[in-house]
Amino acid sequence: MIEQVESDIKDLVNQVGYSEITRLFDSLSGGKRLRAKLVLKIAASSKESIRLAAIIELIHAASLLHDDVIDEASLRRGVPSVNATEGSKTAVMLGDVLYSKAFSELVHFNRDIASCIARSVTALSVGEMMDVNMAQQFNSDADAYMNMLYLKTATLIEASTAAAALLAQKDATAYGIYGKNLGLSFQIIDDILDIVSDEATLGKPAMNDFVEGKCTLPYIYLYEALDSSGKVRLQSCHARELSCEESTWIRSKMEEHRCIEKAYALARQLSDAAIQSVAGDTELVAIIETMMKRSY
Ligand code: FPP
Ligand code: MG
Fold it and tell me: Same domain for 41 and 93?
């Protein structure tokens, strides 16, 4: 049960033995706990699966703390980020504690499970660096973007489902494929929502990705479709605050060239591949369908 994961996470944080850490951790919003839910669905509830789920959520929380420092984000899940309220130094240190505590617990798992998770954390760190580097200039390379997305977001979800399968002695390859495609599809939907939703729904400013320099798939598709003067105009909007007129122009051009639909079609294709790899597991199929329907 997910409540048991929440309480295990709290226990692990308390074990660190510094009340300041507990206070800071309690101020975080827990989020959807997607990775933990996947672990429990695949491996069923046991002391080990609950611990594995808690470890993965701690790693995820640490990565978001560091990501908000790197992105200089002031909001996380609709509430002020730790770097905004307590400063970047505190956010980095809290991330370090959560991340190292997770690894201290991971070593108690068998070698295959431990290395599956550990390798994914290296990959997600590389992915974060690629993301930051790619945001320095306008990127119009969809393959490079998808590779970065895989490393930054999908890899920990892939490792969560594969590790859970290893724990339950199920087919780790098939469940890994499910996790990878779910992760990619999830991130593409996230990228779409950044463009089509408003600030109140997102818990952060709309069209923030492009302002941060991130050329997500709809922007790449738009660039491909625009004529040369349109391309110049889009590039001139990159990585800076947008005026109302500019964001309206981008949105209307995306509509004209069906960029959101194209990105959504790729997400659907990836979701279908995920479903196919665990055919028959109705709960995992339901997770995909709920994710695809997120405010779109
Ligand atoms: C969010 O991306 C960021 C990630 C999913 C991964 C961040 C990874 C690291 C900082 C490296 C790993 C570090 C540790 C301590 C394990 P985003 O900025 O596109 O999404 P957002 O809108 O949710 O911020
Ligand atoms: Mg970020």
Answer: yes
Domain that holds residue 288: 113-296
pTM of the model: 0.93
- Inter-residue contact 82 to 65 (CB < 8 Å): yes
SS3 category, 56: helix
pLDDT tens, position by position, 124-136:
999 999 999 999 9
C-alpha–C-alpha distance, residues 201 and 205, integer Å:
9
What is the distance in A from the centroid of ligand 2 to the CA of 130? 13
Average the pLDDT over 82-90 and give the result.
Answer: 98
Q: What is the CATH number of the domain that holds 51?
A: 1.10.600.10
> Domain boundary residue among 82, 108, 134?
108
Mean pLDDT of the chain: 95
* Closest atom, ligand 1, to C-alpha of 59: 16
**Same structural domain for residues 16 and 129?**
no
Q: Give the total residue count for the chain.
A: 296
Burial of 19 (0-12, 13-18, 19+ CB in 10 A): exposed
Pairwise CA distance, residues 152 & 202, whole Å: 20
For residues 146 and 279, state if they share a domain: yes
Final residue belonging to a domain, choices 46, 74, 108: 108
Cα 150 to ligand 1 centroid, rounded to whole Å = 12
When divided into structural domains, the chain yields a total of: 2
Ligand 1 atom with the smallest distance to the CA of 67 is: 10
